[in-house]
Amino acid sequence: MFEVYITKSGKYLPNEAVSNDEMENFLGKVNDTASKARRIILRNNGIQSRYYALDQNGQTTHTNADLTNRAIEELYDENFTKKDVELLSCGTSTPDNLLPSHAVMVHGLMKNHSLELNSSSGVCCAGMNSLKYGFLSIKSGNTKNAVCTGSERVSSWLKADKYNNEVVNLQKLEEQPVIAFKKDFLRWMLSDGAGAFLLENQPKGDISLRIDWMESYSFAYELEACMYAGGDKLENGEIKPWSDYNSEEWLKESIFSIKQDVKDLDKYILEKGSDCIQTTLEKHKMNPANFDYFLPHVSSNYFVDKFYNAMISRGMDFPKEKWFMNLTKVGNVGSASIYLMVEELMNSGKLKKGEKILLIVPESGRFSYAHACLTVC
């Protein structure tokens, strides 16, 4: 078995940062009406700026594959070029197409040579799953290097025109022409961007991060879906897939919009997340004192104190001075968020050899969690 190191990290955030007051200029107003929920949601999530692959007219400027490839290009230098890549592993919640896979589309833009591909789907854990595939490939000796990515291009899913047919339908039914909170909520939470890691079986340069272990958990066997798209939730909790609706319903009911059951989110995300962190630490005979940095992907600052208290109640005290987050300035970029945090910390000049970093990524899709331990080398 080989050691695995993150030897370089890259990112790509499209266009200019978008402030809270500018968001509706890019995403538009549903039914030409300003969202009543927007200010409340933004006050709770604490995000001050984010990035969209849109211009101010709402026109798309980049595909997801393009964002990903641009982040990957940050990994190349005189010692590592696109011709040296042995494995490409890409994770995203928002691929450009149902098929071919996201990794295939990214590889098409790389224009290098034939190589092994892996596409990880899901929600926020998709980026960690793509990382684990690369980690295991190098660990086993299958490849000597891997490029792993997490990316999202969700802005085009959140544009007002995606919901207007539903509003028209509600008006015809003489109902309030306002989209449900489970849909409006996410319009002010999510943003675009991509992150990339180069994994190798030897450390390189001034700073490398050795991946000591990775752990994953799913609670889908006991909990309903919480965040979903391409279907709708029935009264019994099952998801009716888009292909079982007729094409008129796709528009009338915004079937392809991203939705979140905020009641289930609040009820389970911290409870299950704290439980499995405790399980991970016990498995590896570690405790919070072993870590110098704690990098949690938190979708909203609303959850920060709640998360801290949930861990304290289980005997895990990660002091706030160890927390490293960039949610406020880059937004919630789903599967790319953990890559963007690691990239910023790795290039901050703060890290010292021997320090340990704990990565925590929750996913509210159907409540999955992924963890990783890194050592600075």
From TrEMBL:
Gene3D superfamilies linked: 3.40.47.10
Beta-ketoacyl-[acyl-carrier-protein] synthase III C-terminal domain span: 281-360
One function term, GO molecular function aspect: acyltransferase activity
Keywords: Acyltransferase, Transferase
CDD domains assigned to the protein according to its UniProt record, in alphabetical order: init_cond_enzymes (cd00827)
Biological processes, Gene Ontology terms: secondary metabolite biosynthetic process
Domain of life per record: Bacteria
NCBIfam families named in the record: PRK06816.1
Keyword Ribonucleoprotein appears in the UniProt entry: no
Protein name: StlD/DarB family beta-ketosynthase
SUPFAM superfamilies per record: Thiolase-like (SSF53901)
Organism: Flavobacterium macacae
